[in-house]
Amino acid sequence: MTGNDFPVLRVAGRPVARYVTRPELPHRLSPRPCLHPVTTLAGTAVTEFRPADHLHHLGVGVAVPDVEGHNFWGGRTFVRGRGPTELDNHGTQRHTAFQLRDPDGFVEELRWIAAGTELLRERRTVAATELTGTAWALDFTFSLTNTTPDPLGIGSPATNGRPGAAYGGFFWRARKESAAPRVFTADREGEREVHGRGADWLALSGENWSLVFAGATERTRHDPWFVRTEEYPGVGSSLAHEERVTVAPGDTLVRRIVTVVADGRLDADGAAALVRKAVST
């Protein structure tokens, strides 16, 4: 890794991801550290940062639209009975320190702050691993600890009254191309079939790249997938799908997602094989 604010992840000596620790962004975009660009081993970018369709989509990271009413996702807030509403309720994820920094990964401490108060303290562990000559894996774990004296409720537009919009948690804004990417799991295909459902893995495949997402812990696998392909390409793991999640004072919520980043268009067998290798590595 090089640079204080832009550590670079490398696989087999090749740069595959840049980590932006202190992005200079408007407050309404909920500034937060993120990975961008993320590339395949051949150099194809598979993330977008501040795309025109959603300026608050920032590569790969953790974004939550409702932490006790505070917006750590960016943009408008969905309000029951009013719809998407511009509110002055945005929070910021602040990089505190790296506990570990190596060419293939890091451990980072962050503070989630809103209205001048720390709500959560996060430990983020990110690692890059070579799988084959054309694929590598990004292992991303986040642990959120409630540092307030009261319970914190984590919600989504879905829990606030907007069906099908349970976004919030790990989120990957993918590369937008002229055609929508293919999305599939082991037994389903298409946005309507995979969105809002659980699956051991989910693949997104574009013109010459593929991403395969997998929950790497039993608890993470319980979270349904949030998927968009037609409006924009993005995949997330939903923390609050049907009900709000409550984190008690001092308690910690942990999730781990492993993503295969591959050159070429994978089929189901190829995706499954790479996920098995990535999760067992």
List the helices and strands and how they pair.
Layout: E1 8-11, E2 14-20, E3 34-38, E4 60-67, E5 70-72, E6 77-79, E7 83-85, E8 92-102, E9 105-114, E10 117-132, E11 135-146, E12 152-155, E13 169-173, E14 182-184, H1 191-194, E15 201-205, E16 209-215, H2 218-221, E17 225-228, E18 234-237, E19 245-247, E20 252-263, H3 268-280
Antiparallel strand pairs: 1-2, 2-3, 4-5, 4-12, 4-13, 6-7, 8-9, 9-10, 10-11, 11-20, 12-19, 13-18, 14-15, 15-16, 16-20, 17-18
Quick tags:
281 residues, mainly beta, 3 helices, 20 strands, 7% helix
Can you walk through the features of this model?
- With 281 residues, this protein is mostly beta strands.
- 7% of the residues lie in helices and 46% in strands.
- The chain has 3 helices and 20 strands.
- It has helices at residues 191-194, 218-221, 268-280; strands at residues 8-11, 14-20, 34-38, 60-67, 70-72, 77-79, 83-85, 92-102, 105-114, 117-132, 135-146, 152-155, 169-173, 182-184, 201-205, 209-215, 225-228, 234-237, 245-247, 252-263.
- The strands form 4 sheets. An 8-stranded antiparallel sheet has the order 8-9-10-11-20-16-15-14. Strands 4, 5, 12, 13, 17, 18 and 19 form a 7-stranded antiparallel sheet that branches. A 3-stranded antiparallel sheet has the order 1-2-3, with no helix packed on it.
- A hairpin with a 5-residue loop joins β17 and β18.
- The radius of gyration is 17 Å and the shape is globular.
- The model has no long low-confidence stretch (mean pLDDT 96).
